[in-house]
Specification:
EC 3.1.21.-; hydrolase; alpha/beta; TIM Barrel; 2 domains; hydrolase activity, acting on ester bonds; globular
Length: 263
């Protein structure tokens, strides 16, 4: 945890949302005062709540867990109740669209869930964290049609220059994970050059997407500095300046005061 001032932990299944009070008690010690939560029904969970188990393009068999027997509408109600009741909930997410793990028949459930989360984020004036996997055009279309929240974040940004230009034009944030440091991800790196610094965030997506030079090991929050430094090098800006800018951005998005943004 060295150098980590705060973290936002995503609770994006019904069982995680339902046990959020237990999670909050577990993090009740003063040392965990800076642990916050985001709540949602993940897009890959949404079709299961509607009984849709067809295999997606990833060819991984779908299994319906016990908590997914609850209808999607009721699961979304549970998310809203948690977001309204628990003061350490600072965001709605991960929500969005995932066309890699979901079959065509499950897309409507994902879109229904995504739209509901958008409206919830707006009603509570909370930031929206978007999971967008191989669904860029539909994510953007739905955000524009329903109306994006004031603070909209594309978590683990996976787009290219074109998507980055759309985010920039709409004032949406791109949160970059460690995979931006991988040499083969040229499209992702070109997107960095398009994004205004005041709309950039970094994240882990732990335990995956560990940045270079630690790729292959479990990811963790203390490694986000490597990702931030890579962005700075790529953009040709001072590393400390960009780190402070990212801290300021995170504070503005999540309403969390970060000391590094004041340097």
């Amino acid at each position: 945890m060295a150098g980590v001032e705060a973290m936002v932990v995503s609770q994006c299944s019904l069982v995680e949302v339902q046990t959020l009070d237990e999670q909050r008690e577990r993090f009740a010690l003063p040392i965990f005062d800076s642990v916050f939560f985001a709540v949602a029904i993940h897009p890959n969970e949404a079709p299961h709540h509607e009984g849709i188990l067809e295999t997606g393009p990833d060819n991984v068999a779908q299994i319906r867990e016990a908590w997914q027997e609850v209808p999607l509408a009721d699961a979304l109600t549970a998310v809203e109740q948690a977001a309204r009741r628990i003061d350490k909930v600072v965001a709605i997410g991960e929500t969005g669209l995932d066309y890699f793990r979901t079959a065509e028949v499950g897309k409507d459930a994902q879109k229904q869930s995504f739209a509901a989360h958008i409206e919830l984020a707006k009603s509570l004036d909370l930031p929206l964290q978007i999971h967008d996997r191989e669904a860029h055009a539909d994510c953007v279309e739905l955000l524009l049609r329903v109306g994006a929240p004031r603070r909209t974040v594309f978590h683990c940004f996976s787009g290219d220059r074109e998507l980055a230009e759309i985010l920039s034009a709409n004032g949406w944030y791109a949160s970059f994970a460690g995979n931006v440091t991988y040499p083969a991800n040229r499209d992702l790196q070109e997107a960095v050059l398009v994004m205004p610094r005041e709309l950039c965030l970094v994240e882990t997506d732990a335990p995956y997407l560990t940045p270079q030079p630690y790729r292959g090991r479990p990811n963790a929050s203390y490694l986000v500095g490597h990702t931030a430094d890579f962005l700075a090098q790529l953009a040709g800006v001072d590393s400390d300046t960009l780190r402070c800018q990212i801290c300021e951005n995170a504070g503005e998005v999540y309403g969390i005061g970060l000391k590094n943004s004041e340097k």
